[in-house]
């Protein structure tokens, strides 16, 4: 019995290791390629024969990559903070407060998930043009300041909180916003961590809307700016790989910050069954 259990455990580790290699290999290949000179990009060798930092120096000094990096950081951070606050507030309201039309409001919010982003681009651009938001941080960020998915996710987590806990706070004289901020919000931290990672990643990689709303080189975000490295005359793969290597750093940092809360949330969910 013990031998069979060990064999099952070894097989599980082998499968997980293989899956990890499949997932990580493209990132490893990207990083290795970023240290190759341009004439070795298409060579049939995994390791660079002449490792160089010239690709990174060229990206950082010969292009506006630092400005594009800052733009993406500002937009992704602002939208993530906005989504965490407003989506959790709306989710709490729809889950814990009773008022007429509550379910209808929730259904209307959910129904927006069925509208493709491509159909919203024209209304967004018309609105931005009329209000002078074109080529501004606000113009890039405003479509993502709230998300229906975030409202749905937070509402489902708030639904799991016992009402007695909030009623006890009300008896003690805590305001409704105080109940939300001091009691409910700390208990749904795993959901907020997952929402933060998904929102930051989505806005960090956003391409279509920034491509439309941005008109100057200084306001480009990373995906839009990096697209300049590829054109009809060919692609500068050495620069693309170096820029991609730098672009994944904030995503890894955000995941490192919130991964503990996500794992705790998965464990708690498993314990509750």
From TrEMBL:
Topology with respect to the bilayer: Multi-pass membrane protein
Top-level taxon of the source organism: Bacteria
InterPro entries in the record: MetI-like, MetI-like_sf
Signal peptide: none
TM spans (from-to): 7-32, 68-92, 104-125, 137-154, 191-216, 236-258
Name assigned to this protein: Carbohydrate ABC transporter permease
Coiled coil (residue ranges): none
Domain spans labelled ABC transmembrane type-1: 69-258
Subcellular location, record wording: Cell membrane
Organism: Carboxydichorda subterranea
Pfam family, one: BPD_transp_1
Upper lineage: Bacteria, Bacillati, Bacillota, Limnochordia, Limnochordales
Family statement: Belongs to the binding-protein-dependent transport system permease family.
Keywords: Cell membrane, Membrane, Transmembrane, Transmembrane helix, Transport
């Amino acid at each position: 019995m013990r031998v069979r259990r060990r064999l099952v455990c070894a097989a599980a580790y082998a499968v997980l290791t293989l899956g990890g290699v499949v997932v990580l290999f493209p990132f490893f290949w990207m990083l290795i390629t970023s240290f190759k000179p341009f004439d070795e990009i298409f060579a049939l060798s995994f390791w660079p024969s002449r490792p160089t930092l010239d690709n990174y120096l060229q990206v950082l000094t010969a292009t506006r990559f630092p400005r594009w990096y800052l733009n993406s950081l500002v937009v992704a951070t602002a939208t993530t903070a906005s989504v965490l606050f407003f989506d959790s507030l709306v989710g709490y309201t729809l889950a814990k407060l009773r008022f007429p039309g509550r379910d209808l409001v929730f259904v209307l919010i959910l129904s927006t998930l069925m509208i493709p982003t491509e159909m919203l681009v024209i209304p967004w651009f018309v609105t931005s043009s009329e209000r002078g938001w074109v080529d501004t941080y606000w113009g890039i960020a405003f479509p993502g300041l709230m998300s229906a998915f975030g409202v749905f996710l937070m509402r489902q987590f708030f639904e799991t909180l016992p009402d007695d806990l909030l009623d006890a706070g009300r008896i003690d004289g805590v305001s409704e916003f105080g109940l939300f901020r001091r009691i409910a919000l700390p208990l749904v931290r795993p959901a907020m961590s997952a929402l933060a990672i998904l929102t930051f990643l989505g806005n960090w990689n956003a391409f279509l809307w920034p491509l439309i709303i941005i008109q100057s080189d200084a306001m480009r975000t990373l995906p839009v700016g990096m697209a300049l490295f590829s054109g009809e005359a060919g692609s500068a793969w050495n620069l693309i790989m170096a820029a991609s290597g730098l672009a994944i750093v904030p995503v890894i940092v955000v995941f490192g910050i919130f991964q503990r809360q996500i794992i705790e949330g998965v464990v708690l969910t498993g314990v509750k069954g």
